[in-house]
Protein 1
Amino acid sequence: MTTGPMHQNKKWLESQYAKTKNIYTMADIAGCHPRTIHKWMAKHNIKMNGMKGRKHTEETKEKISKGVLATNPTGMAGRKHSPETRKNMSLNRKGSMNKNWKGGITAGIRKLRKTKEYVRWRKEVINNAGGTCENCGSDKNIEAHHIISLHKDISKALDINNGMALCIACHKKRHRRERDV
Ligand SMILES: [Zn+2]
Ligand SMILES: [Zn+2]
């Protein structure tokens, strides 16, 4: 009989591999990490069929192709992300979703500007300001401006309190300053 854990035993490895064709299953049986199995398989020169066992899930294949099996450079596998990391990850996701959302909403905004409700909002905002620019007092070329941009909060699109009257010049200036509005 040999001493030491079974996964270090060549005979055990050979027979288990013949049975399971899967070092993950073997790792489960031996109660060790798949890469430990892999290491000992390699040590004993046991052929692993290029790890193409039918039992491999897509995830396993990916792990193998990325070499996670042999090395674990990040040490992340099986470890939970810290709350901080998770928060950052979710922020990143939100950020990229936001970009998509903005891309998709532009067409929606264009449509919105043509609706009766929008035209009414515009008129009301300008009327409330007495038809003059709330910045310079001009009464020429008055437009309705969204204080909170449609891109930032579409739900405030028709909110009278979110509108202000600006002449075309002041309006342009404001948008240049706010850049993304
Ligand atoms: Zn505006
Ligand atoms: Zn003005």
Note: Residues 83-112 form the longest helix (30 residues).
Protein 2
Amino acid sequence: MRLPCDLQSAAAALLLFTSPALARRIPDVIEGDNLDDKDTSVRQVAIIGAGAAGSSAAYHLRKYAAQYNVNVNITIFEKTDHIGGRTLTINPYDDPSLRLELGASIFIEKNYILNQSVEEFGLRKKDPDVGSDPKMGIWDGEKLVFEIDTSSSWISQLWHIVWKYGIRTPKRTNDLVQETVSKFLRMYEEPYFPFKSLTQRAYDLDLAPATGATGEEFLKANNIYGAYAHDIVQASTRVNYATNIGRLHGLDTMVAMAPAGATAVQGGNWQIFQKMVERSGATIMLNTSVSSISFAKTGSEDTTSARYRLRAIHSSSQEDTSYPVEFDNVILANPYQFSDINIADGVLETHIDEIPYVRLHVTIFTSPFRYSPGFFGLENSKALPGTVLTTLGKTDNATSGVAGAGSAGFFSISMLRKLVNPKTQKEEYAYKIFSPEKVTPEFLSRLFGVKVPETFIAEPNDQSSAEVSPISWYYPHVFYSYPKAEPRVTFQDPIVGAGFYYTSGMESFISTMETNALMGKNVARLIVDDMRGVESGGVQSHDGSLAPGQQLKMTCDRAGRGAGKGGVRKAGEVPKTRPTELPEMPLVDL
Ligand SMILES: Cc1cc2nc3c(=O)[nH]c(=O)nc-3n(C[C@H](O)[C@H](O)[C@H](O)COP(=O)(O)OP(=O)(O)OC[C@H]3O[C@@H](n4cnc5c(N)ncnc54)[C@H](O)[C@@H]3O)c2cc1C
Ligand SMILES: *[C@@H]1O[C@H](CO)[C@@H](O)[C@H](O)[C@H]1NC(C)=O
Ligand SMILES: *[C@@H]1O[C@H](CO)[C@@H](O)[C@H](O)[C@H]1NC(C)=O
Ligand SMILES: *[C@@H]1O[C@H](CO)[C@@H](O)[C@H](O)[C@H]1NC(C)=O
Ligand SMILES: *[C@@H]1O[C@H](CO)[C@@H](O)[C@H](O)[C@H]1NC(C)=O
């Protein structure tokens, strides 16, 4: 069974790859311009965004193109000066030789695409940065409701859990996680891969009952409730998705509890995506923000010959210019609502819905101090956990956003690792806080039991900030980190126009580096199959067989509201929307 020490490492945890079909090697990338004579028609593909999804799309496009002997020319546009998007590192003490993950920090061996890439690219794995103190506690704003020492023996940890929560509920939870994850894993395999409709796959793979219910409802329907769900599962959804189990859907809840063995790449996870981009042979336009997309020729709305014209702004000039190459395919690989792109009328055949995202404050800092025992209602520092996850207090309501943090006020605090301050040569600790609001000096003063002056919250590179103890270095950042992921049974599908693809619908289903990379790979496959004239990505028909290329007709989808409001429901409501042509699927008995 899994131990709560894995809670911290649960985020990316998803994929138990056992299928040998998946290990099938795709021919290596042909380096250089080995474009042959047979096919002079080169597909011009634009990818907007070089995060997990866009990088993976480029990398897999190149692989599939080599495998099937078709020509693609890939151009990636990236607004920032780096590859990786929400996967990025920062340098504590502004020392370039030190790196800490600011965004996506962990994945598991069974995240097939990432794990395989790490091996292929010769990157090195390391333990995630949570190891400097083996003690973990769950705080409800008043008291520590659970504590465990992950350096103690396996059996003693097990005993500790069983003593507090019994054996059946943890076991049942574990079984449910395994079952749900194994359903999801089929999405990597034929006939479920590739896919034109995420909504369809949610039904095909019997995952709609998980996405259509809150974590709490989904657990209850599976006979899991009480203190274990409230403490352990909820601490896990809060650290991974900044959301309580009464709000987050069941699939993300399972992901947050998914298997152990989390890992990270030495020097930063972003290197996986950097290598993917390098291997793709794409032209990469950094510091280049796409500002608009339109048909290249007016009147070419004729979908068979659609070619797109992009305009982009380079950060150095701020000038909005037309990109010289016209594109056959566009892959929009970032949440559209944050992309600041003007898409001309008629280009999108499916409306891309706005999705409510979590606004998460991630604060990393260094300090010579350890937490004050008094903050957690403890007598002395012996029992102090380095990692403090949180759950709701007795009188807290399971709302979302700032109120959702409850009396604890934050989602997690972890002591990442010990570092030597280059200025003082003294050992200090690096901490990370996830919170719904800005961390205040008042909060830090209470946390450490020392006066943290108001002046310490200076800009990251402000020299004065380095001088002020007890916080020796400070880096605050705000992310639109992931969707709030309230229950829903329809999702934004990846094809949104003629030859126009969108990856971020995946985020409302499961938001991780791996799943977004999977969507990038899926889109790459759909494009290459389209070039080959092969119908793929079809849906399962009523008798269970696959009808290749068959388009899912959904009232809400084709009306241009695919993942629309109709698909979102409030917690507590039984999901009503169901794709009309699908077989009856038993939803969880709520
Ligand atoms: C704090 C935090 C912790 C997380 N922890 C984990 C974790 O431990 N494990 C895990 O697997 N996942 C984790 N996640 C989630 C994970 O980071 C995301 O799911 C994933 O990285 C998203 O990848 P993406 O490619 O879809 O989007 P992004 O990474 O957001 O990439 C989109 C890219 O598009 C670019 N872009 C946007 N607009 C334009 C434009 N107009 N023109 C050009 N470029 C543009 C952006 O600059 C960005 O680089 C975490 C996320 C956060 C914020
Ligand atoms: C590929 O795209 C780049 C720019 O994005 C362009 O400079 C180059 O000429 C294109 N190559 C081919 C073979 O079309
Ligand atoms: C991008 O911009 C940054 C500064 O904002 C600069 O340091 C970097 O060299 C630029 N990179 C490219 C490829 O233009
Ligand atoms: C993950 O990668 C390692 C090599 O880094 C490999 O030995 C292992 O088999 C991979 N795991 C899976 C599940 O693919
Ligand atoms: C929770 O909600 C109830 C009913 O709306 C309200 O009375 C109570 O004050 C709320 N609790 C907190 C801590 O906000």
Note: The first strand starts at residue 43 and ends at 48.
